[in-house]
Amino acid sequence: MILLCGIPSESPLAMVARELDALGAAYRVLNQRKVAAHDIAWEINGAGIAGKLHLDGETFALAEIDAVYIRLMDDRILPELEGEPEGSPARRHARGFHDALLRWLEIAPGRMVNRSEPQGSNGSKPYQAQLIQTYGLRVPETLITNDPAAVLDFQRRHGAIIYKSISGVRSIVRAFGEEDLARLDHIRWCPVQFQGLLPGTDVRVHVIDKDAFATEIVSDKIDYRYAKRAGGSAELRATELPADITEKCIALTRGLGLAFAGIDLKRTPDGEFFCFEVNPSPAFSYYEANTEQPIARAVGRYLAGTN
Amino acid sequence: MVLILCEEVDFAAAWAAERLRERGVEVEFVTGADLAAAGRLEHRVGADGITFELELADGRRLSRARVHGVLNRLSFLPAACVRRIGGPDRDYALQEYYALYLSWLHALAGPKLNAPTPQGLCGNWRHPASWAALAMQADLPAEPYRQSSRDDPMAVWQPGAGSAPAAAFVVGERVIAEPPVQEFNGPCRKLAAAAGATLLGIDFAPGADGHWRFIGATVLPDLVRGGPPLADALAQVFRP
User: How far does B1 lie from chain A, in Å, by closest CA?
Assistant: First the structure.
């Protein structure tokens, strides 16, 4: 049986559920918003892992579950817990349930999309960039510093530069401009990550196991994800990648321990590819909705073991 | 030069530094307070290569070119670094610093005890459930681990009282085990390999039947307990 964990109305989860229906695969949705009606208990011993999952009136042996699609939101901000004081029985149950569930997901056998541990590399962009390089993909020239003079030197060498967070938090890309120059001294308090601005076209590659779907994004803004918010536009269309780039993306995904990933590339005007990052929990619905690429179907087939 | 990173009050790190020096290893001892007070920092990643440079307040300079191995005893950002970060963006700044530390530690050349991971700067700081699963896969006898919705998730992170009745240490390929648990040298080595740890402390206690069982593992072990054999093993890893 396949388990889909998260909020049923969330687009990626809903799209994968539809594909599983089409495939006729057996699945259940673990609706986080009904956490008060869920329970889990398990044990690991010399014979393996065994336990039970109670979902809103139904009970399953954990051994029945051979694949899980994990789209869990932070249980502490579930709407159902709004107004609940810290440490209330409802909050304690939600925390206890989610922790026990997540610990089981980390060690249970089966097709997990994705386990928590391998997602960690996305929490440090330069760390992940070093891993990306080992799979033969180029990464943008990157400087992290608290020294304004080093930034100015970097800008002289690369021309236009951008800055973004080092971690996965507030990960919005911005061009380094006059306004930033005036406040550059602030980096003495907290180092900042700068990169040479690469010309070209953004490409998002969704890799699911051995399948890859490349989407080209033409935008008039540096960070196409926020183009509309910034008064710009973004046009998405399916594209083909050179075979060696596709292979590297698949190898990178597998090497990071992920079954499913959204890899951000830039194709420069001279046909070079650079990799910005690997998103381990890609909200692929935006890309599929714009291109009709069968990403949800591939995820569903992987979960069902029929890919 | 081998870099030892630790909090100011880490006696095991100071012990290791002394033992390594006695064995002819050049050591640079850097505390969390040194790192928190550091000045200029520059870290580069790209086709031009990977570099890292940090100027400490006392004039010492750490760089990728100079460091040829690391014994890291910092599981998270140094406490002194955490203390000096405040304001409304504190959580964000902590994430940024952690991401930076993870990257520059990864960038250093030579053996790393342990290599940094997203789950811990001195190695993967695993949940007891994960250690139990890995231990059983490594053929170490272990007590069953149970968890349910009714458990307090924080309870398992509370430090235990006192030290374990018996311990083993894995350093690179070597296992230094106390006499009662020397029969587990092979599984201990297997556990460290499965955990991706080049330095691992493994704790044992007798079960109700009197047989020794795995009760936990740590990437931040009490090195002093390993004594001269452990110091020899550390020196062997770091000696050019």
Answer: 23
Q: Find the helix or strand (DSSP H, E) in which A161 lies.
A: strand A161-164
Q: Which helix H or strand E contains A149, and what residues bound it?
A: helix A148-158
Residue B107 in contact with partner chain A when CB distance is under 8 A: yes
Nearest Cα neighbor of A252 from A271, A285, A275, A281 is A275
* A142·B41 Cβ contact <8 A: no
Cβ-defined contact of B147 to A103 (cutoff 8 Å):
yes
What does the pLDDT profile of chain A (307 residues) look like in tens digits? 999 999 999 999 999 999 999 999 999 999 999 999 999 999 999 899 999 999 989 999 999 999 999 999 999 999 999 999 999 999 999 999 999 999 999 999 999 999 999 999 999 999 999 999 999 999 999 999 999 999 999 999 999 999 999 999 877 899 999 999 999 999 999 999 999 999 999 999 999 999 999 999 998 877 777 777 778 888 999 999 999 999 999 999 999 999 999 999 999 999 999 999 999 999 999 999 999 999 999 999 999 999 8
- Complex-level ipTM: 0.96
Write out residues 157-186 of B within 8 Å (CB-CB) of A. none
Q: Is A150 on the interface with B (CB under 8 A)?
A: yes
Helices (H), B26-153: 32-36, 79-83, 90-107, 128-137
Within an 8 Å CB–CB cutoff, is residue A116 touching chain B? no
User: Tokens 């033969």 label which residue?
Assistant: A136
How many angstroms away from the CA of A101 is the closest CA of chain B?
8
Whether the model pTM is above 0.80: yes
Residue-wise DSSP of B46-68: STT--EEEEE-TTS-EEETTT--
Cα–Cα dist B120/B115, whole Å: 9
* Shortest CA gap B144–chain A (Å): 4
Query: Is the bond leading into A122 cis (omega within 30 degrees of zero)?
Result: no
Amino acid at A55: L
Q: d(Cα B178, Cα A254) in Å, to the nearest integer?
A: 39
Instruction: Give me the residues paired with residue B75 across strands.
Output: none
Instruction: Please indicate if any CB of chain A lies within 8 Å of the CB of B214.
Output: no
